[in-house]
Design a protein that fits this description.
iron; binds protoporphyrin IX containing FE; 52% helix; 4-stranded mixed β-sheet; 642 residues; Cyt_P450_sf; 3-stranded antiparallel β-sheet; transmembrane helix; Cyt_P450_E_grp-IV; membrane
Length: 642
């Protein structure tokens, strides 16, 4: 269950990012000629004359460009020396492989399966072809990863096309900026996520965790009551059929009721678990948490549903939309990554419109909050939220005027945090509940550990576990580490070489003629896929059971993992100056919600032969095999505990 896409953009999209700028001028002219700005030609444009819709012309131009680039790439790689000339590589298959490279193969199976297959065959650095035959470097070698992410982080930025497409949607936050701007922004944002800051957020996490447990309980009770109601109706109509004299509840004598109950094989309702889509609930909860932590905004999506608030509604629509993109829309997204669109993004694609609505929704609320703070009318609870902390850090006397965030950059951080901090944590929670449902004895042990800790706490007259107590539970730690390793919400991310470089390898690979390759020379513009999920599951590093859920492995990690140099050993929160700024926040929130749920409910797999697959919806979400049209979901049997 891996992925070939990143939090930013589908991996395969950025196949087009490293296209050289020499195409840009000609392409822009073509764009304007066809559709984009017909008036500039003093005419209505060729599109108008040909009666092509903007979408069709966009795809047509994209296709022509990609074809030309594919052919020139092929010619280049055949006539000149490719950096990877003597490398073994996966063969691109199918009649469209000259233009689509290996991308079609990559769509089969669960996301990331093929990357793992290639890595097992070729090693921790694999060259495959993306759109237009572009050579793409898939990395899962620990030294290479640390070189790209840590040692030379700013020499391997995110692909420019993807970054600029995203910054039109998310604004200029830490996720989309590079180099000195990124360094400056991280300096202001980092203090918001220190241990002491997260300690302040913990009561909020507990409050929302309890609200989730209560809502789940209530909704299950309501469902049970509705079922009982239906059964009563059923009984009445059956009784009526058996004897027309029984026309209302009172007239049915108890023996008949028992008879009917037996006949209908009714179970004791209290012991029957409910089937609950846990993804739906965790997603609402983490959205509420991030709204309140970020700017003290109560989204109340648990109570009101995703459509109850403009922010929740827009994020919900965007995520649903990403999960149901048509082939045409996916092609649009691919083409949009061309750097030749720089300066004219965001293109009016359906996805961009939805994503922009998210930005606008957050911006309008955040502007209101900012105004209140400026006017001194903000309520006292805003004292400790992310916005207030960022504002304070920004105005600190130690920060030079030139280093301070501009108002639009502050806004960019908020949009970024809501996107980056919402679906990631809910996805991780969903996968952990699934894994624990599949491994009942592990579920039982971790529950026991949590209940014992809570009991001691209660005896001491405290309601909730403290930050230290929560993070000191060994089973909970192991389960958390293991699910993040095995099911990383962000499966991969993209980078490109800003200059020619040489990437070292920890584990040399074999070339086409058996020669040893222990370093990778890359040219400026080389596309790189940092494959988090593949690194996390490599059997040669983690052992033969690397693809299984085994939390106890964290008590005795293999020496190859310990020596990898990857901080925290798994790559799920990335590494280096661009690692996940919200890691401590996410882990604390995750543990608070999980321990509250485990103390209140037991989780079992869905009935029958339901098979859970995964699907890339920015993050890697679950869905049911054979029911793909229902979208992403994780139905589990949930039983309330006494
Ligand atoms: C289980 C939960 C989470 C996981 C697995 C996760 C993972 C990641 C990963 C892999 C990246 C790097 C993305 C890239 O470079 O393409 C990232 C970046 C980021 N994450 Fe998280 N994240 C999680 C939760 C959060 C939370 C809760 C927040 C905020 C409250 C957050 C805020 C961010 C931000 C702002 C960045 C951009 C950092 C930068 O580029 O400097 N994340 N996260």
């Amino acid at each position: 269950m891996c992925a070939n896409r990143s939090i930013i953009t589908p991996d395969s999209m950025s196949a087009v990012d490293s296209l050289s700028g020499y195409f840009a001028a000609g392409y822009r002219t073509a764009m304007s000629t066809f559709s984009m700005s017909p008036n500039r030609l003093g005419d209505k444009g060729i599109v108008h004359h040909l009666q092509l819709s903007p979408l069709v012309s966009f795809l047509l131009i994209g296709f022509i460009t990609v074809s030309i680039v594919a052919l020139s790439n092929l010619a280049f790689q055949m006539t000149f020396m490719s950096t990877f000339k003597n490398w073994q590589r996966p063969k691109a298959q199918g009649k469209w492989s000259w233009i689509m490279g290996n991308l079609i193969q990559m769509q089969k199976g669960n996301p990331g399966d093929i990357q793992m297959e290639w890595t097992e065959k070729f090693g921790g650095a694999v060259i495959y072809r993306g759109l237009a035959g572009n050579e793409r470097l898939l990395l899962s070698d620990p030294r290479a990863l640390m070189y790209v992410l840590h040692q030379r982080c700013y020499a391997f930025p995110k692909p420019s096309g993807a970054r600029s497409a995203l910054s039109n949607l998310l604004g200029e936050g830490v996720l989309t900026t590079e180099g000195d701007v990124h360094k400056r922004q991280r300096k202001i944002v980092n203090p918001t996520f220190t241990q002491s800051a997260i300690r302040d957020f913990l009561p909020l996490f507990w409050r929302h965790s309890r609200a989730l447990a209560k809502h789940l309980q209530t909704s299950m009770e309501e469902e049970r009551n509705a079922k009982m109601q239906n059964k009563t109706q059923e009984r009445l109509s059956m009784a009526h059929e058996l004897s027309p004299a029984y026309i209302n509840d009172e007239t049915i004598n108890q023996n008949d009721v028992k008879l009917l109950d037996d006949k209908m094989k009714m179970n004791d309702q209290a012991t029957v678990p409910s089937i609950v889509d846990v993804l739906h609930w965790t997603s609402r909860t983490t959205l509420d948490v991030i709204g309140e932590s970020a700017f003290s905004y109560k989204l109340n999506s648990l109570q009101r549903g995703e459509n109850g608030d403009v922010i929740a509604d827009s994020f919900n629509k965007m995520m649903t939309h990403v999960g149901q993109l048509t082939l045409l829309e996916r092609a649009q997204l691919h083409f949009e990554q061309f750097s030749i669109f720089d300066g004219i993004r965001p293109l009016p694609t359906s996805f961009n419109k939805r994503a922009r609505a998210c930005y606008d929704a957050v911006e309008s609320v955040a502007q209101k909050m900012l105004k209140e703070r400026r006017e001194g009318t903000a309520p006292p609870e805003t004292e400790k939220d992310v916005l207030e902390r960022v504002l304070r850090a920004n105005e600190d006397s130690s920060v030079k005027q030139s280093q301070r965030l501009m108002p639009h950059e502050i806004m960019g951080q908020l949009t970024t945090l809501i996107l980056a901090g919402h679906e990631t944590t809910s996805t991780a929670l969903t996968w952990v509940l699934y894994e624990l449902a599949m491994h009942p004895s592990i579920q039982e042990s971790v529950r026991k550990e949590i209940l014992e800790a809570q009991q001691i706490n209660e005896q001491e007259g405290k309601e909730d576990l403290s930050y230290e107590e929560l993070h000191a539970l060994p089973m909970l730690n192991n389960v958390t580490n293991e699910v993040m390793r095995l099911n990383p919400p962000v499966h991969s991310t993209n980078r490109e070489a800003a200059e020619d470089d040489i990437i070292p390898l920890k584990y040399p690979i074999k070339g086409e003629h058996g020669q040893t390759i222990d370093q990778i020379p890359v040219r400026k513009g080389q596309a790189i896929i940092v494959h988090i999920a593949t690194y996390n599951r490599r059997k040669d590093l983690w052992g033969p059971d690397a693809d299984q859920f085994r939390p106890d492995r964290w008590e005795n990690l293999p020496s190859k993992v310990l020596q990898s140099g990857v901080p925290g050993h798994s790559l799920s929160f990335l590494a280096g100056p661009r690692n996940c700024v919200g890691q401590k926040f996410a882990l604390t929130e995750f543990k608070a919600i999980l321990s509250t749920l485990l103390a209140a409910f037991s989780f079992a797999p869905p009935p029958g032969t339901t098979k859970i697959d995964s699907k890339q919806v920015i993050v890697t979400r679950p869905r049911i095999r054979g029911m793909e049209s229902q979208g992403t979901q994780m139905p589990l049997c949930v039983t309330p505990l006494q």
